[in-house]
Each structure stands twice: as C-alpha cells, then as structure tokens.
Specification:
Layout lengths: L1 H19 L3 H7 L3 E7 L11 E2 L12 E14 L3 E10 L2 E11 L7 E11 L4 E8 L2 E13 L1
Antiparallel strand pairs: 1-8, 2-7, 3-6, 3-8, 4-5, 4-7
Length: 151
C-alpha cells in the first residue's frame, strides 16, 4: 500500500511539474485577456412573470471577441415559484436579442432559498445584460453576480 502511494505521488509530481515552477495563480491569470465581476447584494424585487435585468450591473460591451459570461441568481422565497428563468440579452439598436436561456422548473419540494447559475459563450459587439424571470411564488433576490472572461 505504501509503495502504491509513493508511485501515485511521483506520477502526480511529473504531471504537475510544468505548472509547479510557475505557480498556479500567475499561470491561470496569464491566460486571460480581461475579466470582471459585478456582484450586488441589495434586495431586488421584480414584477411577476416579467424579465428583470440584474440591478446594479451595467451592460457589458467587450468589443466582439469571444467571451464567456456567467450569471448567478439567489432567491429567498416565502412561497415556492412555479419556475425560474435566467438569460443573457444583447442590447442591439433594434432592441434586445436574447441568447442562452436556462429554465428551472420548481415543484412542491423546491427549496425556499434557491441559487441558480448559468454560463454562455458569445461573440458580440453589443452590450450584454443578465436577466431573470420568476413565475409564481413570492421571492426576493438578495444576491446577483454577473461575471465575464475573455480567453
């Protein structure tokens, strides 16, 4: 058993050796052109069944390069919703152009404290916003995050 542990340890060192000298953080950061985070913990209320833009997060315009967008929503509910949707929307001159919609169908056993996360890759020259829609239930969003990263 001891011999197997030594062999496994040696293999892990050999696999990780290209990264060890560089340190994990600088190696990962050197790979990103640009990134950012908008986090808002102010309570946000919404109109039932209507798309609501994450408050406190300005639209992101990242110049058309390939980008990864991440959105996280937290809800605290008194009554469970029927479903929750999140999406990313481009703000074009002709109005909103949506992409990447996720839907979570809730049931009678759904948690009253809920978190959902989505990500989407996009190339766009138009600003992007994160939005959510809640149908049924009675909730408030006590945290929203919108992150972006350009490799």
């Amino acid at each position: 058993m001891k011999r197997a542990s030594i062999i496994i340890g040696a293999v892990l060192v050999l696999i990780a050796s290209p990264v060890i000298g560089k340190g994990l953080e600088p190696y990962a950061v050197a790979q990103a052109k640009t990134s950012g985070l908008c986090k808002n913990t102010d309570p946000q209320f919404y109109k039932q069944g209507k798309w609501t833009t994450f408050s406190g997060c300005e639209p992101l315009a990242l110049g058309g390069d390939r980008s990864l967008f991440f959105a996280q929503l937290r809800l605290v509910c008194e009554k469970r919703p029927k479903y929750v949707k999140m999406r990313l929307a481009r703000q074009t001159p002709d109005g909103l152009n949506t992409t990447g919609t996720n839907t979570w169908v809730m049931g009678k056993n759904a948690p009253l404290n809920w978190s959902g996360t989505m990500w989407w890759e996009s190339n766009t020259k138009h600003p992007i916003v994160a939005q959510f829609k809640v149908v049924g239930g009675k909730c408030v969003s006590n945290e929203r995050q919108f992150k972006w990263w350009q490799p």
